[in-house]
Automatic annotation (TrEMBL):
Organism: Methanobacterium formicicum (strain DSM 3637 / PP1)
Keyword annotations from UniProtKB, A to Z: Membrane, Transmembrane, Transmembrane helix
Transmembrane domains' residue ranges: 350-369
This protein's name: VWFA domain-containing protein
KW Transmembrane (keyword) present: yes
Domain VWFA: 61-228
Length: 373
Protein backbone atom coordinates (compact mmCIF):
# COMPACT_ATOMS: atom_id res chain seq x y z
CA UNK A 1 0.00 0.00 0.00
CA UNK A 2 2.83 2.38 0.85
CA UNK A 3 4.51 1.67 -2.48
CA UNK A 4 1.29 2.54 -4.37
CA UNK A 5 0.93 5.78 -2.42
CA UNK A 6 4.49 6.79 -3.27
CA UNK A 7 3.91 5.96 -6.95
CA UNK A 8 0.68 8.01 -6.99
CA UNK A 9 2.38 11.00 -5.34
CA UNK A 10 5.18 10.90 -7.88
CA UNK A 11 2.71 10.70 -10.76
CA UNK A 12 0.77 13.72 -9.49
CA UNK A 13 4.00 15.67 -9.15
CA UNK A 14 5.00 14.77 -12.70
CA UNK A 15 1.64 15.95 -14.07
CA UNK A 16 2.02 19.27 -12.24
CA UNK A 17 5.49 19.87 -13.66
CA UNK A 18 4.45 19.05 -17.24
CA UNK A 19 1.48 21.42 -17.11
CA UNK A 20 3.28 24.28 -15.41
CA UNK A 21 6.60 25.96 -16.03
CA UNK A 22 9.80 24.34 -17.19
CA UNK A 23 13.11 25.56 -15.80
CA UNK A 24 16.43 25.33 -17.58
CA UNK A 25 18.80 25.13 -14.63
CA UNK A 26 19.61 28.56 -13.24
CA UNK A 27 19.20 30.20 -16.63
CA UNK A 28 16.04 31.03 -18.60
CA UNK A 29 12.66 29.81 -17.38
CA UNK A 30 9.97 28.86 -19.87
CA UNK A 31 6.27 28.08 -19.69
CA UNK A 32 3.43 27.21 -22.04
CA UNK A 33 -0.29 27.30 -21.27
CA UNK A 34 -3.51 26.74 -23.23
CA UNK A 35 -6.90 28.10 -22.21
CA UNK A 36 -10.19 27.08 -23.81
CA UNK A 37 -12.01 29.99 -25.47
CA UNK A 38 -14.86 28.07 -27.06
CA UNK A 39 -16.08 24.56 -27.79
CA UNK A 40 -13.32 23.92 -30.36
CA UNK A 41 -10.98 26.88 -29.82
CA UNK A 42 -8.24 27.87 -27.36
CA UNK A 43 -5.54 30.47 -26.75
CA UNK A 44 -1.96 29.24 -26.38
CA UNK A 45 0.65 31.37 -24.57
CA UNK A 46 4.42 30.86 -24.44
CA UNK A 47 6.53 32.87 -21.95
CA UNK A 48 10.31 33.07 -21.58
CA UNK A 49 12.04 34.87 -18.69
CA UNK A 50 15.64 36.01 -18.85
CA UNK A 51 18.19 34.45 -16.47
CA UNK A 52 18.15 35.63 -12.85
CA UNK A 53 20.73 38.01 -11.41
CA UNK A 54 23.82 36.22 -10.18
CA UNK A 55 26.27 38.22 -8.09
CA UNK A 56 28.62 35.26 -7.76
CA UNK A 57 28.98 34.99 -11.54
CA UNK A 58 29.51 38.67 -12.30
CA UNK A 59 32.80 40.34 -11.44
CA UNK A 60 32.48 44.09 -10.93
CA UNK A 61 34.26 47.04 -9.38
CA UNK A 62 32.08 49.81 -7.91
CA UNK A 63 33.18 53.24 -6.73
CA UNK A 64 30.66 55.01 -4.49
CA UNK A 65 31.31 58.73 -5.11
CA UNK A 66 29.24 60.48 -2.42
CA UNK A 67 28.66 64.22 -2.38
CA UNK A 68 29.71 65.55 1.05
CA UNK A 69 29.34 69.26 0.26
CA UNK A 70 27.80 71.62 2.82
CA UNK A 71 24.30 71.36 1.36
CA UNK A 72 24.29 67.61 2.12
CA UNK A 73 24.42 68.25 5.86
CA UNK A 74 21.96 66.31 8.02
CA UNK A 75 19.32 64.03 6.58
CA UNK A 76 20.52 64.04 2.92
CA UNK A 77 24.02 62.81 3.83
CA UNK A 78 22.66 60.25 6.27
CA UNK A 79 20.24 58.88 3.66
CA UNK A 80 23.05 58.73 1.10
CA UNK A 81 25.31 56.82 3.47
CA UNK A 82 22.55 54.42 4.56
CA UNK A 83 21.65 53.51 0.99
CA UNK A 84 25.29 52.95 0.01
CA UNK A 85 25.84 50.76 3.07
CA UNK A 86 22.77 48.69 2.22
CA UNK A 87 23.98 47.92 -1.28
CA UNK A 88 27.50 47.08 -0.11
CA UNK A 89 25.88 44.40 2.05
CA UNK A 90 24.75 42.69 -1.17
CA UNK A 91 28.20 42.57 -2.73
CA UNK A 92 30.17 39.35 -3.12
CA UNK A 93 33.80 39.52 -1.92
CA UNK A 94 34.75 36.68 -4.26
CA UNK A 95 34.77 38.96 -7.30
CA UNK A 96 33.29 42.35 -6.40
CA UNK A 97 35.42 45.22 -5.14
CA UNK A 98 34.19 48.50 -3.69
CA UNK A 99 35.78 51.91 -3.25
CA UNK A 100 34.52 55.13 -1.64
CA UNK A 101 35.12 58.73 -2.73
CA UNK A 102 33.87 61.24 -0.16
CA UNK A 103 34.08 64.57 -1.92
CA UNK A 104 33.28 68.27 -1.54
CA UNK A 105 35.70 71.02 -2.64
CA UNK A 106 38.38 68.33 -2.54
CA UNK A 107 38.63 64.59 -1.87
CA UNK A 108 38.17 63.87 1.81
CA UNK A 109 40.90 61.75 3.48
CA UNK A 110 38.32 59.14 4.58
CA UNK A 111 38.08 57.94 0.95
CA UNK A 112 39.28 54.40 0.27
CA UNK A 113 40.38 52.52 -2.87
CA UNK A 114 39.05 49.24 -4.23
CA UNK A 115 38.87 46.45 -1.68
CA UNK A 116 36.86 43.41 -0.68
CA UNK A 117 37.18 44.41 2.97
CA UNK A 118 33.61 45.58 3.26
CA UNK A 119 34.04 46.51 6.93
CA UNK A 120 36.55 49.12 5.81
CA UNK A 121 34.18 50.21 3.04
CA UNK A 122 31.35 50.75 5.53
CA UNK A 123 33.68 52.74 7.77
CA UNK A 124 34.71 54.96 4.86
CA UNK A 125 31.11 55.61 3.84
CA UNK A 126 30.14 56.59 7.38
CA UNK A 127 33.19 58.86 7.75
CA UNK A 128 32.03 61.41 5.18
CA UNK A 129 31.49 64.90 6.61
CA UNK A 130 29.37 67.65 5.02
CA UNK A 131 31.52 70.69 4.17
CA UNK A 132 32.73 72.77 1.25
CA UNK A 133 31.49 73.07 -2.33
CA UNK A 134 30.74 70.62 -5.15
CA UNK A 135 33.90 69.68 -7.04
CA UNK A 136 32.32 66.93 -9.13
CA UNK A 137 35.20 66.79 -11.58
CA UNK A 138 37.63 65.91 -8.78
CA UNK A 139 35.26 63.15 -7.61
CA UNK A 140 35.09 61.52 -11.05
CA UNK A 141 38.84 61.86 -11.50
CA UNK A 142 39.53 60.11 -8.19
CA UNK A 143 37.02 57.37 -9.01
CA UNK A 144 38.83 56.74 -12.31
CA UNK A 145 42.14 56.46 -10.45
CA UNK A 146 40.66 53.87 -8.10
CA UNK A 147 39.28 51.83 -11.00
CA UNK A 148 42.63 52.01 -12.79
CA UNK A 149 44.16 50.22 -9.79
CA UNK A 150 41.75 47.25 -9.92
CA UNK A 151 43.36 43.92 -9.09
CA UNK A 152 40.58 41.75 -10.54
CA UNK A 153 41.08 41.21 -14.24
CA UNK A 154 37.89 40.95 -16.24
CA UNK A 155 35.74 42.92 -13.80
CA UNK A 156 33.38 45.55 -15.13
CA UNK A 157 34.11 49.08 -13.87
CA UNK A 158 31.39 51.34 -12.54
CA UNK A 159 31.04 54.66 -10.73
CA UNK A 160 27.93 55.64 -8.78
CA UNK A 161 28.02 59.41 -8.29
CA UNK A 162 25.44 61.01 -5.99
CA UNK A 163 24.96 64.76 -5.64
CA UNK A 164 22.29 67.22 -4.52
CA UNK A 165 23.41 70.28 -6.46
CA UNK A 166 25.26 71.93 -9.31
CA UNK A 167 28.97 71.18 -9.87
CA UNK A 168 31.62 73.83 -9.45
CA UNK A 169 32.44 73.38 -13.13
CA UNK A 170 30.24 71.52 -15.58
CA UNK A 171 32.92 71.66 -18.28
CA UNK A 172 35.51 70.00 -16.03
CA UNK A 173 33.04 67.31 -14.96
CA UNK A 174 32.22 66.55 -18.59
CA UNK A 175 35.93 66.25 -19.39
CA UNK A 176 36.33 63.66 -16.63
CA UNK A 177 33.24 61.76 -17.77
CA UNK A 178 34.74 61.57 -21.24
CA UNK A 179 37.96 60.23 -19.71
CA UNK A 180 35.97 57.52 -17.94
CA UNK A 181 34.16 56.61 -21.16
CA UNK A 182 37.47 56.29 -22.99
CA UNK A 183 38.51 53.61 -20.49
CA UNK A 184 35.18 51.78 -20.70
CA UNK A 185 34.09 52.89 -17.22
CA UNK A 186 30.36 53.46 -16.71
CA UNK A 187 29.06 56.38 -14.67
CA UNK A 188 25.66 56.15 -12.98
CA UNK A 189 24.48 59.49 -11.61
CA UNK A 190 21.91 60.14 -8.88
CA UNK A 191 20.35 63.54 -8.28
CA UNK A 192 19.08 63.91 -4.70
CA UNK A 193 16.42 66.53 -4.01
CA UNK A 194 15.03 69.32 -6.18
CA UNK A 195 18.16 71.46 -6.64
CA UNK A 196 19.79 69.21 -9.21
CA UNK A 197 20.46 69.95 -12.86
CA UNK A 198 18.86 66.76 -14.17
CA UNK A 199 19.77 67.48 -17.79
CA UNK A 200 23.44 67.86 -16.90
CA UNK A 201 23.49 64.73 -14.71
CA UNK A 202 21.82 62.82 -17.55
CA UNK A 203 24.48 64.09 -19.95
CA UNK A 204 27.28 62.88 -17.68
CA UNK A 205 25.82 59.38 -17.43
CA UNK A 206 25.00 59.14 -21.13
CA UNK A 207 28.58 59.98 -22.12
CA UNK A 208 29.73 56.75 -20.46
CA UNK A 209 26.78 54.51 -21.33
CA UNK A 210 25.38 54.78 -17.80
CA UNK A 211 22.08 56.15 -16.58
CA UNK A 212 20.73 59.05 -14.52
CA UNK A 213 18.35 58.50 -11.61
CA UNK A 214 16.26 61.21 -9.94
CA UNK A 215 15.75 60.79 -6.17
CA UNK A 216 13.20 63.35 -4.93
CA UNK A 217 13.97 62.29 -1.35
CA UNK A 218 16.31 60.06 0.60
CA UNK A 219 13.63 57.37 0.81
CA UNK A 220 14.05 56.76 -2.94
CA UNK A 221 17.71 55.86 -2.74
CA UNK A 222 17.44 52.21 -1.73
CA UNK A 223 15.37 51.35 -4.79
CA UNK A 224 17.69 53.31 -7.05
CA UNK A 225 20.81 51.59 -5.70
CA UNK A 226 19.09 48.22 -6.08
CA UNK A 227 18.25 48.99 -9.69
CA UNK A 228 21.81 50.05 -10.46
CA UNK A 229 23.28 47.03 -8.70
CA UNK A 230 21.01 44.67 -10.62
CA UNK A 231 22.65 45.94 -13.80
CA UNK A 232 26.04 44.90 -12.43
CA UNK A 233 24.82 41.38 -11.70
CA UNK A 234 22.56 41.00 -14.74
CA UNK A 235 23.00 37.96 -16.97
CA UNK A 236 22.02 37.52 -20.59
CA UNK A 237 20.92 34.49 -22.59
CA UNK A 238 21.54 34.83 -26.34
CA UNK A 239 20.50 33.23 -29.64
CA UNK A 240 17.09 32.30 -28.21
CA UNK A 241 14.90 30.37 -30.67
CA UNK A 242 11.39 29.05 -29.96
CA UNK A 243 10.23 26.08 -32.06
CA UNK A 244 6.59 24.98 -31.70
CA UNK A 245 5.19 21.99 -33.63
CA UNK A 246 1.37 21.86 -33.85
CA UNK A 247 -0.62 18.66 -34.53
CA UNK A 248 -2.40 18.13 -37.88
CA UNK A 249 -5.78 18.74 -36.25
CA UNK A 250 -4.75 22.13 -34.84
CA UNK A 251 -4.87 25.25 -37.01
CA UNK A 252 -3.86 28.78 -36.08
CA UNK A 253 -6.68 31.31 -36.25
CA UNK A 254 -5.54 34.82 -37.19
CA UNK A 255 -2.04 36.06 -36.43
CA UNK A 256 -0.04 35.42 -33.25
CA UNK A 257 0.71 38.49 -31.10
CA UNK A 258 4.28 38.19 -32.43
CA UNK A 259 4.50 37.05 -36.04
CA UNK A 260 6.73 33.95 -36.27
CA UNK A 261 9.87 34.13 -38.39
CA UNK A 262 8.71 30.99 -40.17
CA UNK A 263 5.40 29.10 -40.45
CA UNK A 264 5.87 25.75 -42.19
CA UNK A 265 3.25 23.17 -43.14
CA UNK A 266 4.94 19.77 -42.90
CA UNK A 267 4.32 16.68 -45.06
CA UNK A 268 2.66 14.84 -42.16
CA UNK A 269 0.11 17.61 -41.71
CA UNK A 270 1.78 19.18 -38.68
CA UNK A 271 2.75 22.86 -38.58
CA UNK A 272 6.05 24.25 -37.29
CA UNK A 273 6.20 27.80 -35.94
CA UNK A 274 9.61 29.37 -35.25
CA UNK A 275 10.40 32.63 -33.45
CA UNK A 276 13.91 34.08 -33.33
CA UNK A 277 13.73 35.86 -29.97
CA UNK A 278 17.35 37.07 -29.82
CA UNK A 279 18.59 37.92 -26.32
CA UNK A 280 16.98 38.25 -22.89
CA UNK A 281 18.67 39.69 -19.81
CA UNK A 282 17.79 39.57 -16.14
CA UNK A 283 14.31 40.99 -15.58
CA UNK A 284 13.27 40.77 -19.25
CA UNK A 285 10.34 38.65 -20.46
CA UNK A 286 9.23 37.54 -23.93
CA UNK A 287 5.61 36.40 -24.44
CA UNK A 288 3.63 35.31 -27.47
CA UNK A 289 -0.01 34.21 -27.69
CA UNK A 290 -1.97 32.72 -30.56
CA UNK A 291 -5.47 31.34 -31.10
CA UNK A 292 -6.07 27.79 -32.35
CA UNK A 293 -8.98 25.69 -33.60
CA UNK A 294 -9.25 21.91 -33.41
CA UNK A 295 -10.84 19.66 -36.03
CA UNK A 296 -10.85 16.75 -33.58
CA UNK A 297 -12.69 16.47 -30.28
CA UNK A 298 -11.76 15.22 -26.85
CA UNK A 299 -9.03 16.15 -24.37
CA UNK A 300 -6.11 16.72 -26.72
CA UNK A 301 -2.61 18.24 -26.63
CA UNK A 302 -2.28 21.58 -28.37
CA UNK A 303 1.17 20.82 -29.71
CA UNK A 304 3.38 17.85 -30.62
CA UNK A 305 6.44 19.37 -29.01
CA UNK A 306 7.92 22.80 -28.27
CA UNK A 307 11.49 23.73 -27.40
CA UNK A 308 13.54 26.81 -26.58
CA UNK A 309 17.18 26.69 -27.65
CA UNK A 310 19.63 29.34 -26.45
CA UNK A 311 23.16 30.09 -25.28
CA UNK A 312 23.40 30.57 -21.51
CA UNK A 313 25.26 33.56 -19.96
CA UNK A 314 28.54 31.64 -20.33
CA UNK A 315 27.86 30.94 -24.01
CA UNK A 316 27.03 27.27 -23.54
CA UNK A 317 24.27 26.00 -25.92
CA UNK A 318 21.23 24.67 -24.07
CA UNK A 319 17.69 23.56 -24.84
CA UNK A 320 14.61 23.81 -22.65
CA UNK A 321 11.53 21.71 -23.36
CA UNK A 322 8.20 23.48 -22.99
CA UNK A 323 5.23 21.76 -21.32
CA UNK A 324 2.55 20.23 -23.57
CA UNK A 325 -0.79 21.64 -22.36
CA UNK A 326 -4.07 19.89 -23.15
CA UNK A 327 -7.53 21.30 -23.83
CA UNK A 328 -10.93 19.58 -24.00
CA UNK A 329 -12.40 20.30 -27.43
CA UNK A 330 -16.05 19.54 -28.21
CA UNK A 331 -18.10 19.63 -31.39
CA UNK A 332 -19.68 23.06 -31.69
CA UNK A 333 -23.48 23.37 -31.69
CA UNK A 334 -25.19 23.99 -35.05
CA UNK A 335 -25.46 27.71 -35.58
CA UNK A 336 -28.44 27.65 -38.06
CA UNK A 337 -32.12 26.93 -37.18
CA UNK A 338 -33.77 23.92 -38.89
CA UNK A 339 -37.46 24.43 -39.77
CA UNK A 340 -39.74 21.37 -40.13
CA UNK A 341 -43.37 21.22 -41.27
CA UNK A 342 -45.87 20.94 -38.43
CA UNK A 343 -49.37 21.95 -37.47
CA UNK A 344 -49.34 25.14 -35.50
CA UNK A 345 -52.22 25.67 -33.10
CA UNK A 346 -53.93 29.00 -33.35
CA UNK A 347 -53.55 29.40 -29.63
CA UNK A 348 -49.97 30.44 -30.25
CA UNK A 349 -51.21 33.55 -32.04
CA UNK A 350 -53.25 34.61 -29.08
CA UNK A 351 -56.68 33.71 -30.62
CA UNK A 352 -58.68 30.96 -28.71
CA UNK A 353 -59.08 27.93 -30.99
CA UNK A 354 -62.46 26.88 -29.57
CA UNK A 355 -63.86 30.38 -29.98
CA UNK A 356 -62.76 30.59 -33.57
CA UNK A 357 -64.41 27.27 -34.44
CA UNK A 358 -67.70 28.36 -32.84
CA UNK A 359 -67.68 31.60 -34.81
CA UNK A 360 -67.14 29.71 -38.05
CA UNK A 361 -70.06 27.35 -37.33
CA UNK A 362 -72.40 30.25 -36.63
CA UNK A 363 -71.47 31.95 -39.85
CA UNK A 364 -71.92 28.80 -41.88
CA UNK A 365 -75.25 28.09 -40.17
CA UNK A 366 -76.52 31.49 -41.13
CA UNK A 367 -75.69 30.88 -44.74
CA UNK A 368 -77.18 27.41 -45.05
CA UNK A 369 -80.43 27.66 -43.08
CA UNK A 370 -83.45 29.07 -45.01
CA UNK A 371 -84.63 32.48 -43.97
CA UNK A 372 -88.14 32.88 -42.60
CA UNK A 373 -90.46 35.21 -44.40
Amino acid sequence: MRKKAITLSFSLLLVFVLCGAATAGDNVTVSKTAVSTGSDTATVTITINGPPANSSATGTDVVYALDCSGSMSGEPLQASQDAANNIVNKMNPANQQAAVVNWDSTIQPSSIGLTTDYTAVHAAINAGVAAGSTNMAAAIQQAIAYLDASTMAGNTHNIILLSDGYPDSQADAITQAQAAAAKGYKLFTIGLGDSVDAAFMTQLATITGGKYYAAPSGSDLDQIYNDIFSQFTSQTATNIVVTDVLPSYISVVGNPTIIPNSNTKNADGTTTLVWNVGSLSTGQTWTVSYNVKSSQYGTLPTNVQATVSYNDPEGIPKTATLPVPTVTFTKPATNGTTVTAKTVGMQTSGVPVAGLISALLLVMGGLLLPRRK
